[in-house]
Amino acid sequence: MADLKMDVVVVGGGFSGMYMLHKLRTSGYSVIVFEAGDGIGGTWYWNRYPGARCDIQSMEYSYQFSDELAQDWEWTERYATQPEILRYIEHVAERFDLMKDVQLNTRVGRTEFDEGTNRWQVTTDQGDAVDAKYLVMATGCLSSTNYPQIDGLESFSGACYHTGKWPHEGVDFSGKRVAVVGTGSSGIQSIPIIAAECDELTVFQRTPNFSIPAHNQPLDPGFVAKIKGRYRAFRDENRLTAFHADFDYNEENALDVDPAHRTNEYERRWAKGGISFMAAFADLMFDKNANATAKEFLHDKIDEIVRDPDLAAKLKPDGVVGCKRLCVDTDYFATFNRDNVSLVDINETPIRKITANGVEIDEGVCDVDIIVFATGFDAMTGALTRVDIRGRGGERFSESWAEGPKSFLGLGVQGFPNMFIITGPGSPSVLTNMLPSIEHHVDWIGDCISYLEERGVARIEAKADAQEDWVAHVNEVGDTSVYPQCNSWYLGSNVPGKSRVFLPYLGFPPYAEKCAEVANNDYEGFELSA
Ligand code: NA7
Asked: Is residue 368 one of the residues assigned to a domain?
């Protein structure tokens, strides 16, 4: 017997879960949020590694559901740090009195759909049993950490950390010999800071990454006033762009302009800094030859920065620019000019095992006191499939997605009625500015629930054909681009054994149009039963 009867259970207290709570409560529904951490914030709660920052500019990385909130909150830097983003979500929770419906330190366990009542029976590791009509998965895209399987890891006598589960008290690197494994965004942000603090740093690199300088700086009050003076219009303009962000998109194709013009544009964006480098030309993500011009430019930059040519060669990515998410850094490449930093390319010299004293490669053991795994996440699906969800007929969610995720719009899954996913695979999510994409999904789900409740609908479920067509469409659109042509977490290829499927939907505006069309046509593509 359930202890508690609610309209909605939300799993996860990150940015999506907190806004979902606010949205539903404002519409008059009873909601409980279960959050595994002992604080809210999701990604921004767990990723406390040195240098953790958002790679989207702070003036865009915030909620827009409340004009007062948008006007009142003052960001201090161009790219907000993890602590500042955490302060922001805590402020939001306090301002809208959200915490009274959030239960921390609670992991959702077996959760079953009861076909007799059309309701979810949710249990938790704290002994809660909740009967709820709707289940909203707000478990985040980058929350299930990916630990490499390296022999001997348990025998290491020093300290081991993962950037995505960083200790709250921080880590003192002074006087220490440190290994960092992984050179994605987390590695690239933390390596310069760890290098400056520790005695010796060895970076173990499997794949080099492209990175653009952040040129982070305190926010100029004039710039803030300008954006705040037309905040809604600014956000509305961004909503009409592919990445749902203010990237200063250039409509020209790299291959249609002369080389000098092309280099100027790349130089301009390099000097400006940030991920909008990707919007330098319209064909960069659709034509490998166009992309190669960006690659050449970025290779030259690495040569300019890194003094040792052999080292520079090892740091140059061979792949397609942006195919793995482009990184944004502060002094990453220059860090390799330091005397206390060395690089091990593990393709040339693989890690054989971890010993009590350090990391063993062919040339011997690299003795270290601390190992930092900056090895990323089982992205987009990991946090969902690890929850024991049983749908219609007892179908296990993890099994239904064993060959790759199947959903309609990344929002609903056939066989799992009355369940919604926020920024699930099959939606633009990680290819966009996450915050407005979260808000878009939360608004859509909230409106859908109100529609169902107003009409006395007992059950909503994605139809098999709509889901099949959508999955095919996501792949078709993905295949028009160069994204599927490399290995990245967008494709699940960073996790051994994970099915290779292009997870996000490319292009926010057509996606938003489709979502609106589905809603306007009485949730066409979903089966609604009285
Ligand atoms: P990423 O971007 O997935 O980077 C993880 C890094 O760890 C990447 O360089 C991986 O190499 C490397 N890796 C993963 N597994 C191993 C093993 N087994 N051995 C050695 N190296 C390994 O995660 P981040 O946390 O940096 O960033 C995630 C997102 O957060 C980022 O894209 C932004 O959106 C914010 P690989 O490239 O797979 O060869």
From this structure: no
* Nearest CA, atom 4, ligand 1: 184
Cα–Cα distances (Å) from 294 to 126, 127, 216, 258, 278, in that order, read: 52, 54, 22, 14, 9
Instruction: Kindly state whether residue 478 falls inside one of the protein's structural domains.
Output: no
Task: State the alpha helices, DSSP H only, in 201-287.
Answer: 221-229, 231-239, 259-272
When pLDDT is averaged across residues 335-358 and rounded to a whole number, the result is 96
pLDDT, tens digit, 9 for 90 and up, residues 422-458: 999 999 999 999 999 999 999 999 999 999 999 999 9
What's the CA-to-centroid distance between 183 and ligand 1, angstroms? 6
Instruction: Looking at the CA of residue 376, tell me the nearest atom of ligand 1.
Output: 23
Between the CA of 458 and the centroid of ligand 1 the distance, in Å, is 43
The residue segments making up the domain with residue 131 are 4-144+378-455
Pocket of ligand 1 from Cβ distances under 6 Å: 142, 148, 163, 181-187, 206-207, 324-325, 346, 374-376, 489, 494
CATH number at residue 108: 3.50.50.60
pTM of the predicted structure, to 2 decimals: 0.97
**Cα(232) to centroid(ligand 1), Å:** 35
Query: Which atom of ligand 1 lies nearest, measured to the CA of 47?
Result: 25
Note whether residue 29 is domain-resident: yes
212: in domain: no
Main-chain phi, psi angles of 32, to 5 degrees: -130, 135
Q: Enter the tokens of residue 418.
A: 């009355």
Number of domains in the chain: 1
Determine how many CB atoms are found less than 10 A away from the CB of residue 402: 11
